[in-house]
Amino acid sequence: MLLPVSLMVAALTSHDLYLKLIPYNPAPGDMVRVEYHNGDSFPNSQVSTKVERLKDARIEGGKDFFQFRIEGTATVADAKAPVNAGNFVAVSRTVPNFIQLDAAKFEEYLKHEGLDEIVAWRKQNGESAKPGREIYSKYAKAIGVTSITSDAYAKPVGFPIEFVPMLNPYEVRPGFALPVQVWFRGKPAAGLTVEASNASPSGEVSKTVVGKTDASGQILIPISKNGLWKLHTIKMERRQDTKEADWESFWCSLTFEVQ
């Protein structure tokens, strides 16, 4: 089913999904509030996410999220921090969804997200004036920590696409850089545009396109300030079966705090 034009335009500004933990540093076994934020108004949410679209919502290696509800523009759940001290990873994904955009809006969206190779493919294959028919899904991770750090941050959770830090985010301080690797279908993902956003304790918000992942799927994230950090990237592929859609995209986010 096609979306109304108004919803198509809104989708361009409300597509990114990320998890926000309150707090990111609970005591072992304490309750954690998990907020699903949807949109480009980091660190706030523009649009709530339908609970029925959320899957695999859990603390990795621990318990599932529970008591899902809508609070304003955010979808909220509760979780229990692991009883063992150390880093922990909260994860969730959405079921695939379909959208169609007219050619101009689709091209605008591709350029905004740094999907230059898709823009070039459409041009080379005479599809620049063709509407964009896309199936997309979103994969979100958030890394927290209890009383001490551990290596849980460095273990992939098995999502089709995910950020995997190569250094513990809770051992990084402003002025340093956090090396991360993007994995897609179990392999390092090269050439993906990575965006980093920060909300500092003083309320300042910044967003930077850091660059593209290298041949080994790695990129350095400059850490300029304390506070909440969000990483974002997208992988888009041409579908072999174009009956339902021409393209499939995989949206990926990671949040953590620099304390």
**What is the straight-line distance between the termini?**
45 Å
Order of helices and strands: HEEEEEEEHHEEEEEEEEE
Helix residue percentage: 10-25%
Unreliable runs: 1-14
Give the rounded overall mean pLDDT.
Answer: 93
Total DSSP helices = 3
β-sheet strand percentage: over 45%
Choose one word for the global shape: globular
How would a textbook summarize the main sheet?
A: 8 strands, mixed
- Rounded to an integer in angstroms, the radius of gyration calculated over CA atoms is 18 Å
Number of strands: 16
User: Structural class from helices and strands?
Assistant: mainly beta
Could you explain the architecture of this structure?
With 259 residues, the chain is mainly β. The protein has a domain of 180 residues. The chain contains 3 helices and 16 strands. The strands form 3 sheets. Strands 3, 6, 7, 8, 12, 13, 15 and 16 form an 8-stranded mixed beta sheet that branches. It has a 4-stranded antiparallel beta sheet with strand order 1-2-5-4, with no helix packed on it. It is globular, with a radius of gyration of 18 Å. The N terminus is likely disordered.
